[in-house]
Write a structure and sequence with these properties.
single chain; globular; 42% helix; Rossmann fold; disordered N terminus; five-stranded parallel β-sheet; alpha/beta
Length: 138
């Protein structure tokens, strides 16, 4: 795991408050990579693996985190990625997604469902702390 006190990489704007970023990903490797990038950007990741878990997290009642930023992995087996984007954006959360570079239809559907941006896996693999840090800053 990344050290929570590590400085944000060059070009990544550190978060200025105790922000929570929900990460909906059923793939352990991507969930871990995204969580490490969020920590490097100065925020606190909260990984969930099912849409029902995200619904609970965003619920606000009984300890929910309200409307944090949300990252949705679109190519999951345990949930419909576009439906997850639609749900999260409908709660008022800021949402980005990650998906295959060659699946333009899925990326477009996620954008139409409310994702402010859909990153490709390759872009995040190569530069996630900077890209997600900019998203958090903006």
């Amino acid at each position: 795991m990344a050290d929570a006190t590590r400085a944000a990489p060059t070009g990544a704007a550190p978060a200025t408050d105790a922000r929570t970023v929900a990460i909906l990903a059923d793939d352990l490797i991507w969930a871990t990579r995204l969580a490490d990038a969020i920590r490097a950007a100065g925020a606190s990741p909260r990984i969930v693996r099912r849409l029902a878990d995200l619904e609970t997290l965003l619920g606000g009642a009984s300890g929910g985190v309200g409307s944090p930023e949300v990252i949705v992995d679109l190519t999951a087996r345990a949930y419909d990625g576009v439906a997850a984007v639609r749900f999260a954006s409908g709660t008022g959360a800021r949402v980005v997604a990650v998906g295959q570079h060659d699946d333009k239809e899925l990326r477009q559907a996620a954008t139409e469902a409310g994702a402010s941006r859909v990153f490709t896996y390759r872009a995040l693999f190569e530069d996630a702390p900077r890209l997600l840090g900019r998203w958090l800053a903006g």
